[in-house]
Amino acid sequence: MTASEQTKTAIVFPGMGPSGFSEVGRFLTLDPFARKRLAEADEALGYSVFDRLRTSEDDYSEATQVAFLVNSMASADRAEQEHGLVPDLCVGPSFGQKAATAYVRSLPFPEVVRLTAELARCEHAYFTEEYQDAVTHTFVRTPQEKLTEILTELGERGEWYDYSGYLDDGFFMVSLRETELEWFKKAISQAGGYSMYTMVPAVHAPAFAELRRRAAEEILPKYEIRDPKLPVVTDQDGTIVTSADELRTMLLDTFDLPIHWPKVVDTLKGAGVSKMYITGPDNLFHRLDRTKSNFEVVTVGPGKRSRPARKR
Known about the structure:
Elements: E1 8-12, H1 21-30, H2 32-45, H3 49-55, H4 62-83, E2 89-91, H5 96-103, H6 109-129, E3 134-140, H7 144-156, E4 161-168, E5 171-177, H8 181-190, E6 194-199, H9 209-219, E7 232-233, E8 240-241, H10 244-256, E9 259-260, H11 261-270, E10 273-279, H12 289-292, E11 296-300, E12 308-309
Parallel strand pairs: 1-2, 1-10, 2-7, 4-9, 10-11
Antiparallel strand pairs: 3-5, 3-6, 4-5, 7-8, 11-12
């Protein structure tokens, strides 16, 4: 494909990362797009998301997740109005799948808000009963061969671990028991890697098949998912989703399959995408080397100045 044919645009809704109330709350209060989406969320849930967010001490509480969804959708609204965004494909890695589901109109936004809240409660109940000490650790600059040695040693000691994300060269997410976290971080450091942050509870691990089952049987049947109005690229293997059944499967895959961002990038490149809008509170995906080296990236969201980053 020639450079002149590389003209398509993708919208990417980022996954959740640690965030403070001050920045999130300020955006919800001051941004007109966020205020509108927040009012819709409040009406859908029957309570004030902002009030619950203000008193929440959990980085991934129900209110925190809904607020992230609100801010992501508000950022997409701004990108459309101020940047003239009309994307050809949509991606929602990890938690971003929920905003993607609303954006491609597989579910109306108020229903996605309720779905998000219900899934948050389902996850909380699951991790209260199962894998109470499971965490997901994110780290960078760690060669695959070194990581394989570390995980082999962990396995030989009879300890559980799962890959939860392949983000870039040397950039991974691994789920394991919290009791092994300090040993693991030290081993990563000795291998030349750098630990970034740890998520509690853990995410995207094959061990969580029971959580997937609960979501499939108890939550998703309440919602009438429709065919997406825009093709969606799955974050697990880069498959392009065009039907309701495929999108439902993608939503369930997030519980027990790892993210694979390089495969997403390969699919987008193969589809002719040259420009990417990342809409929402993103501290990760726009910074990845694989993202920056393949696309012109525009970030739109809390704390962003909505300026494009040059493609390297």
